[in-house]
Amino acid sequence: MNLYQKILTKYWGYTQFRPLQHDIIKSIGEGKDTLALMPTGGGKSITFQVPALAKEGICIVVTPLIALMKDQVENLIERKIKAVAIYSGMTKHEIDIALENCVHDPNLKFLYCSPERLSTALFKVRVQQMNVNLLAIDESHCISQWGYDFRPSYLRIAEVRELLPNVPVLAVTATATTEVVDDVQEKLKFKKKNVFKKSFERKNLVYLVREVEDKLKHLIKIVAAIKGTGVIYVRNRQKCKEIALFLQEHQISADYYHAGLTGIERAYKQDNWKKSKTRIMVATNAFGMGIDKTDVRFVVHMDLPDNLEAYFQEAGRGGRDDNQAFAVLLYHPSDKIKLERRVESSFPPIEEIRRVYEALGNFLQLPVGAGKGMSFDFNISDFVKAYKLSILSVYNCLTLLQHSGYLELSEEVDNPSRIMFTVQRDDLYRYQVANVIEDKFIKLLLRTYSGMFSGYQRIDEADIARKAGIKPEFVSKLLIKLGRDKILNFIPRKKVPQVYYSEERLDLKSVTFTNERYGIRKDLYANKIASVIDYATHNKCRSQQLLNYFGDENASRCGVCDVCTKRNELNLSKYEFDKVLEEIKAKLKAKPLKFEDLVDSVKQNSEKVIKVIQWLLDNDKIVKGDDMLLNWK
């Protein structure tokens, strides 16, 4: 067993790597810049965690998803691997301590950070003092302007590379088109192109599109027909709760999940679903990060997604155990109109974006010329009330300001309380001797948590209160008192998004939107929406459409999706159908023909030809004109 396999077995309990994992790890071990394309559930994190543990030093992991970052750090710590994260919402002192530990603690193996942190002066100084063995870029499609979630802060990664010239880069993503693959390698300054790509084909996943009038009625049919656990994705939080209640009313075990719930609520709901105590989770796209449940039998989308990248990732959460699962998209013709309208609503007029930018600066009481590199708590509900704005318009304006590099808006994250002792042990002992009540409390803290002298530790006031036999609010009062007495630093729990200013606040005339920042991105968004509509409405193998979108031009029909099943009903083999189809296509592209003439001109069994022509007519591949001639559409 080689070193990598030993590490895999020691920390994760697996004896073998999944396909492609070992090849990626070997490439990194040889010091090569590497781009890994692995679908959701393919084990991306293993590809940078294992090689980082095989070498001395620390691995820096860049990811924009704070919730995922925290989840991975917790998972590593549970495996007795030291890891730390820095992100928006932490105090300057917390970040300083974390970076200091990364420099001096040889046992600290992973530093997770959000991309905006890379450009700070503090990070740039400290990173040069660290023994960095690998730079891992999660969600690496974010660096490409052609990606579906472009973030300008990702472009700063190239600056960090210059500070770490001999450190290899591993860029990982679950979804990327051919254009994005090339762009990622260029933007990350790969010394040589080096891509490992696992086929995006999921042979056990059956893709279905159902055009229905009553989606809820059809949902009940799906849930009754397919046994096992499932996920139902919806667009907004209100629908989450409504559909979960609807399923419960039909005696179906269901719950709902969205980013507006507390961390405790989310963890409880997720845990029940993972253990199959809850059969179905109705959720927004907030549900999915770190989900490793393998036996999901169906994933239903009640609404059209904004892009096929997101759809592919979410649908891909079904059938990770390689047994058959179903990805069902429920479609109504009105969905097309709603989705097309999103192009305009997602790109408000530039003057409106500027007004929101100015109002935000005023709301945060930030003077022009100040704020660069600073984070602010930001409650969007309070903001829209204060300025009488539409919450959807504000969100879209902030997204465009983010894409243009002016600021970053983090997701809402439940940050638990943290404490760190600021005195030496001898001084703490003297304080305990002089303060009897505080002494008992401090002893309880020291018994419950470790590492509080070298860094900030997350605490649970309710758990401390239970152990101490006091009310949680009294725990907070004691912590505040210890803070006033300069015994420890106490950072209370907070659950609020953050606005991070990538640049100082500008005066309005300096807030510009080039064609690249606005026009090209709008066109890109419109094209992605058009691809989703094509997927839902075109009668072409669903799997083939998705694979073509991600650059696999030679993908073959799956034979099991709703489109292929209809073809199969013709009692023709794939070979027979395709042979007749190619002849018909060639004849009609050359010139329009009458039905009878077309049947006679194709040198195949006439009964089979008629079946294929009828199928092509039914599925709008060929059309009959007023002159009764058939034309290839």
List keywords for this structure.
633 residues, Rossmann fold, Arc Repressor Mutant, subunit A, 26 helices
Number of domains: 5
What is the straight-line distance between the termini? 58 Å
Mean pLDDT: 91
Please state roughly what percent of the residues sit in beta strands, choosing from under 5%, 5-15%, 15-25%, 25-35%, 35-45% or over 45%. Answer: 15-25%
Rough outline: elongated
The main pleated sheet reads as:
7 strands, parallel
CATH class of the largest domain: Alpha Beta
Tally the helices: what do you get?
26
Query: Count the strands?
Result: 24
Helix share bin: 40-55%
Strand order in space, largest sheet:
3-4-2-5-6-1-7
Determine the structural class based on helices, strands and strand pairing.
Answer: alpha/beta
Low-pLDDT ranges: none
CATH homologous superfamily name of the largest domain?
P-loop containing nucleotide triphosphate hydrolases
Topology:
Blueprint: H1 3-12, H2 21-29, E1 34-37, H3 44-53, E2 58-62, H4 66-78, E3 82-86, H5 92-104, E4 108-113, H6 121-127, E5 132-137, H7 157-163, E6 169-173, H8 178-187, E7 195-197, E8 205-211, H9 215-225, E9 229-233, H10 237-249, E10 254-257, H11 263-274, E11 280-283, E12 296-301, H12 308-315, E13 325-331, H13 333-346, H14 350-363, E14 375-377, H15 380-387, H16 391-403, E15 407-409, E16 414-415, E17 417-421, H17 425-434, H18 436-448, E18 457-459, H19 461-468, H20 472-484, E19 488-491, E20 494-495, E21 498-501, H21 519-537, H22 542-549, H23 562-568, H24 574-590, E22 593-594, H25 595-601, H26 606-618, E23 622-624, E24 629-632
Parallel strand pairs: 1-6, 1-7, 2-4, 2-5, 3-4, 5-6, 8-13, 9-11, 9-12, 10-11, 12-13
Antiparallel strand pairs: 14-21, 15-21, 16-20, 17-18, 17-19, 22-24, 23-24
Helix pairs in contact: 2-3, 5-6, 13-21, 14-16, 17-18, 19-20, 24-26
